[in-house]
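Weekly structure sync, notes
Attendees: PL (lead), two postdocs, one rotation student
Agenda item 3: pending single-chain targets
PL asked that the sequence for the first pending target be pasted directly into the notes so everyone works from the same version. It is reproduced below exactly as submitted, 96 residues in total.
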Amino acid sequence: MKPSQALALKRDLIGSIVARYPTTNLRVFGSALHGRDREGSDLDLLVDALPSATLIDLSGLHLELEDLLGVPVHLLTPGDLSSKFRGEVLAEARPV
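Predicted structure, written out during the meeting:
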């Protein structure tokens, strides 16, 4: 299944998972957003970590999303993005 299809099918469940973690503003970017994804592609997601979030929280969210969606997930925070393309990603990213 393409990541964009998995995202569309399980959007409501994604929201309930994200709500259990100290994060906000889940967004999609990259190939799944632009309809250029294919089977085997990863799903590029961006999330804002709240001040209380730990690496364990972000790792747990990442693993739960991969389990739910059945596709590789690349979960990043804005600070993880290279300054070379951070502005472009932040401008294109859309809420899940």
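Discussion points:
- The CA atoms of residues 4 and 35 lie 7 Å apart.
- Residues 3-95 form a domain with the Beta Polymerase; domain 2 fold (CATH 3.30.460.10).
Action: rotation student to compare against the earlier draft before next sync.
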